[in-house]
């Protein structure tokens, strides 16, 4: 086999389908978010505004977070020195886990290097703890959840997205005595729709099932203290395992689960993805703990964040652009073609200094390619006006349809 030729063919297919992903070189400047500097292909620099970042609240540049990280790195150095089982457990890791357990009203929390690893490691380990476990997974769950369910070697059932009736049918068809777990999300990041948390908890009670919720796109941003949609809806106590990230609204890095002491202890003891991975650097843990603590007492940031999202959606709707609006903070504008989506992204960057990455298959289904905007409290009126004008101009320039999508 000509391995190089096969690699060329694989990459060429992506180019032909308009799905080849390119990275642009940007440098965030401390204190200037959402502004950044783009290093253009010719080596020159240009100021741009980032509209697709997941640092939803700007906490990645909050002085409270930065000072905590500086203090920790001055005190401890750079790395943790090993896995949690060897030498990688520090006071900073324990402090962060305590903050997260308190945030979600759980006995314990367990840190991972990312929410992807937290999902994968936990969901792939649960069948070891509950032999014969059947996992019921929403068809639009994140890739990390899908991978964890796929790898665990146990039984799985895929239910139609947010279709509680279908989920009930699947559960009713299985052995009543079999251990069961329902895995779903609170906010699905591509469309911005909410999972039916209460209805799923009711089914879990009826069929004696555990519940596993991914709150990655909600922690920090929903609920009185930022614990997520489940906190907003007063349902945290009905969820057995809550997954979250430290890399989005909390502005740092890492992932975690929050659950009972025994559940976290068992995952800690059995999950290879936890056992054999070097722990987060202490400075990262310190910054994340400071961010979690800060956002527990910053409802005004959450309110402004929601207001910004509503303003942007209202203005784009007024232009007749086809956005999906489920009431969350995520603003997807449907283009429906991978080549056009990439072209719009390139033109926004080159002609307007606006950075938003195209979202193509397999992240979203073919025919639903989109630009996904993430307004934040630090996107000001000038940035908003510039974005709306640019979208209006480019939509006309590319002769795209102006038809609002129903939620």
From TrEMBL:
Keywords: Acyltransferase, Heme biosynthesis, Pyridoxal phosphate, Transferase. The keyword Acyltransferase applies. SUPFAM superfamilies: PLP-dependent transferases (SSF53383). Pathway: Porphyrin-containing compound metabolism; protoporphyrin-IX biosynthesis; 5-aminolevulinate from glycine: step 1/1. Residues 47-390 form the Aminotransferase class I/classII large domain. It holds the Pfam family Aminotran_1_2. The keyword tRNA processing does not apply. Its cofactor is pyridoxal 5'-phosphate. It catalyses: succinyl-CoA + glycine + H(+) = 5-aminolevulinate + CO2 + CoA. It is an enzyme of class 2 (transferase). GO terms for molecular function: 5-aminolevulinate synthase activity. InterPro entries: 4pyrrol_synth_NH2levulA_synth, Aminotrans_II_pyridoxalP_BS, Aminotransferase_I/II_large, AON_synthase_class-II, PyrdxlP-dep_Trfase, PyrdxlP-dep_Trfase_major, PyrdxlP-dep_Trfase_small. Its EC number is 2.3.1.37. Signal peptide: none annotated. Belongs to the class-II pyridoxal-phosphate-dependent aminotransferase family. NCBIfam families: 5aminolev_synth (TIGR01821). Homodimer. PANTHER family: 2-AMINO-3-KETOBUTYRATE COENZYME A LIGASE, MITOCHONDRIAL (PTHR13693:SF102), CLASS II AMINOTRANSFERASE/8-AMINO-7-OXONONANOATE SYNTHASE (PTHR13693). This is 5-aminolevulinate synthase. The gene is hemA.
């Amino acid at each position: 086999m000509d391995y190089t030729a096969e690699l060329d063919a694989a990459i060429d297919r992506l180019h032909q389908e308009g799905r080849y992903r390119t990275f642009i070189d940007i440098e965030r400047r401390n204190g200037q978010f959402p502004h950044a500097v783009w290093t253009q292909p010719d080596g020159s620099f240009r100021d741009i505004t980032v509209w697709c970042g997941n640092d939803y609240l700007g906490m990645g540049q909050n002085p409270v977070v930065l000072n905590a990280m500086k203090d920790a790195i001055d005190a401890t150095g750079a790395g943790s020195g090993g896995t949690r089982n060897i030498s990688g457990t520090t006071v900073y890791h324990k402090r962060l886990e305590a903050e997260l357990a308190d945030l979600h009203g759980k006995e314990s929390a367990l840190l991972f290097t990312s929410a992807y690893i937290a999902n994968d490691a936990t969901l792939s380990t649960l069948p070891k703890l509950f032999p014969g476990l059947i996992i019921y997974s929403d068809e639009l769950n994140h890739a990390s959840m899908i991978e964890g369910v796929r790898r665990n070697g146990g039984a799985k059932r895929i239910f139609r997205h947010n279709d509680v009736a279908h989920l009930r049918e699947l559960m009713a068809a299985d052995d009543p005595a079999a251990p069961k777990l329902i895995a779903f999300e609170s906010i699905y990041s591509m469309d911005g729709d909410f999972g039916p948390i209460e209805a799923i908890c009711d089914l879990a009670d009826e069929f004696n099932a555990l519940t596993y919720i991914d709150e990655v796109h909600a922690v920090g941003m929903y609920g009185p203290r930022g614990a997520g949609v489940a906190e907003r809806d007063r349902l945290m106590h009905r969820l057995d395992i809550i997954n979250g990230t430290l890399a989005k609204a909390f502005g740092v890095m890492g992932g975690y689960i929050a659950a009972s002491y025994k559940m976290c202890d068992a995952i800690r003891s059995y999950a290879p993805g936890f056992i054999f991975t070097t722990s987060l650097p202490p400075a990262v843990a310190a910054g994340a703990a400071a961010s979690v603590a800060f956002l527990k007492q910053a409802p005004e940031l959450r309110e402004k964040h929601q207001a910004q999202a509503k303003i942007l959606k209202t203005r784009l709707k007024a232009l007749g652009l086809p956005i999906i609006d489920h009431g969350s903070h995520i603003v997807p504008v449907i283009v429906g073609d991978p080549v056009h989506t990439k072209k719009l992204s390139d033109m926004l960057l080159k002609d307007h200094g606006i950075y938003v990455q195209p979202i193509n298959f397999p992240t979203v289904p073919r025919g639903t390619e989109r630009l996904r905007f993430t307004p934040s409290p630090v996107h000001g009126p000038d940035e908003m006006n510039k974005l709306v004008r640019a979208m209006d101009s480019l939509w006309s320039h590319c002769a795209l349809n102006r038809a609002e999508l129903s939620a």
